[in-house]
Amino acid sequence: MDNFQQNTSNNNNVMGILCYLGILVLVPMLTVKNDDFIKYHTKQGFALMILGIIGAVLGSTFILSILGMVIGIFCLVLAIMGIMNVLAGKTEPLPIIGGFATGLKI
Predict the structure, then answer these.
(1) What is the per-residue pLDDT across 74-85, written as a single tens digit (0 to 9) for each?
(2) pLDDT at 4
(3) For the whole prediction, is pTM greater than 0.85?
């Protein structure tokens, strides 16, 4: 693998990882336009961010705080799974939110 391909691969890994770090999904969303791999993970990460926001809103109410914590832990697990997929070069949908994410028009 030549140096250019290796740098491109490293850049894809960094951008792919950013997709699963909450609001940082906006960096690849706004900067990477022509890479299908990054677009796929951007959609997954955006859906995950939406779920995280829902969990945070639910967690802010006293009655639903436990549900919010469960959603937060679930989001953490999904983020780790997404990062592992990026590092493995896979485009596998995340459980539960993957189907919704692939339908997003971003």
Answers:
(1) 999 999 999 999
(2) 43
(3) yes
Q: Return phi, psi of residue 102, to 5°.
A: -65, -20
CB burial of 39-65 (b: ≥16 within 10 Å; e: otherwise) equals bbbbbbbbbbbbbbeebeebbeeeeee
Token pair 């890994």 in the structure block, residue: 13
Side chain identity, residue 29: M
Nearest to 98 by CA among 86, 82, 80, 74: 82
Q: Would you tell me the crossing angle of helices 36-59 and 65-88 to the nearest 10 degrees?
A: 170
Residue type, 13: N
Show Cβ contacts of residue 81 under 8 Å, excluding neighbours closer than 6 positions.
94, 95
Assigned token pair, 30: 């706004």
Torsion over CA of 46, 50, 51 and 56, rounded to 10 degrees? 130
